[in-house]
Design goal:
By secondary structure, the protein is α/β, with parallel strands linked by helices. It has 2 domains: 10-109 and 192-267, Rossmann fold (3-Layer(aba) Sandwich), CATH 3.40.50; 117-188, Alpha-Beta Plaits. 35% of the residues lie in helices and 20% in strands. The protein has helices at 14-26, 56-66, 77-84, 117-129, 152-169, 193-201, 215-223, 247-258, 260-267; strands at 10-11, 30-34, 68-72, 90-93, 98-100, 106-108, 135-138, 143-146, 175-180, 183-188, 207-212, 229-233, 242-244. The strands form 2 sheets. The protein has a 9-stranded mixed β-sheet with strand order 1-13-12-11-2-3-4-5-6, with helices on both faces. A 4-stranded antiparallel β-sheet has the order 7-8-10-9, with helices on one face. Helix 3 links the parallel strand 3 and strand 4. The radius of gyration is 19 Å and the shape is globular. Bound molecules: magnesium ion.
Length: 286
């Protein structure tokens, strides 16, 4: 059953954070699902400018000592591998098209044709020419038209025009149009962040935290169990139960999870125990 888009999400206050930390500390098996852009780092004018800062990797490594961690991103798998491949965490790339479980190799979530790409690429290239500052990004399964650097008013009009053109172009093809933050992406239907993370949720977790900031994260929020802590980063409408304002607060929350020992007295919490090794279910198509 789809969860209703929440207009009365609760801001994560000190009391709510304390409750979250208590549940985290009391849990036996913990899972943290986390988007990257706009969630762990601020959005930047171009994707290349939004690499991880020096503190992020050590922070995720500490978190992985006390929780299973999955970065669930729209980024290409090569980028996630370069940034986080050495960490003991799982990675989901291209909104769920590629999955790298902890300690394993990358695997495609499904096999699909790329026959659709030339048509969509041609249309998006046309709209790159029509909007100064726009750029095209091609991934294995996805084509993305970015417009963060463009004039906002003109970009808004061009984005609407592109959407209309895309809808008519792909009406006979099984594709999905995804509107992210200052980006329009086209990808084959059949995968999204929610489906990609279902395999992780199949593990026996008694604490689940998910963080994300844009439309693609809504697929994830909607498939979470009702007891999960879902937190939207930003002020947009969301299916998440809670919200926080920005990546700095998201990072501070994750940091707090790793320092529960020193905060135990303050939060009435006990030291989190390391997660026992897990064996996620195998990919359905391999
Ligand atoms: Mg994001």
């Amino acid at each position: 059953m789809k969860r209703v888009m929440a207009s009365n999400r609760r801001i994560v206050t000190g009391a709510i954070e304390a409750q979250l930390l208590r549940e985290f500390a009391a849990a036996h098996r913990r899972l943290v699902l986390c988007d990257y852009d706009g969630t762990l780092v601020p959005l930047q004018p171009t994707p290349e400018q939004a690499g991880p800062d020096p503190e992020l990797r050590p922070s995720l490594e500490r978190l992985a000592l006390v929780s299973d961690v999955v970065i669930v991103s729209g980024r290409p798998r090569a980028t996630l591998e370069r940034w986080f491949g050495q960490l003991p965490i799982a990675l989901v790339a291209e909104h769920g098209a590629w999955i790298r479980e902890r300690g394993r190799d990358w695997a495609a979530a499904l096999s699909v044709s790329s026959d659709w790409k030339p048509k969509v690429r041609g249309l998006m290239e046309l709209f790159v020419e029509r909007l100064p500052g726009a750029m095209l990004e091609e991934k294995d399964f996805t084509l993305a038209w970015h417009y963060r650097r463009a004039d906002p008013d003109l970009a808004c009009r061009r984005a609407q025009d592109l959407l209309v053109s895309l809808v008519s172009l792909i009406e006979t093809i099984d594709l999905r149009i995804v509107r992210g933050s200052k980006v329009i992406e086209v990808q084959p239907a059949g995968f999204d962040k929610g489906r990609a993370t279902q395999r992780f949720l199949a593990g026996v977790y008694d604490f689940v935290l998910a963080l994300g900031d844009d439309a693609t994260d809504e697929d994830l929020f909607q498939i979470l169990p009702a007891t999960a802590w879902s937190i939207h980063v930003g002020s947009d409408q969301s299916h998440a139960r809670f919200s926080i304002q920005n990546p700095d607060q998201a990072r501070a929350l994750l940091h707090a999870l790793t320092t529960l020992n020193s905060n135990a007295e303050q939060h009435g919490a006990t030291e989190p125990q390391p997660n026992p090794p897990s064996t996620p279910p195998p990919l359905p198509n391999c």
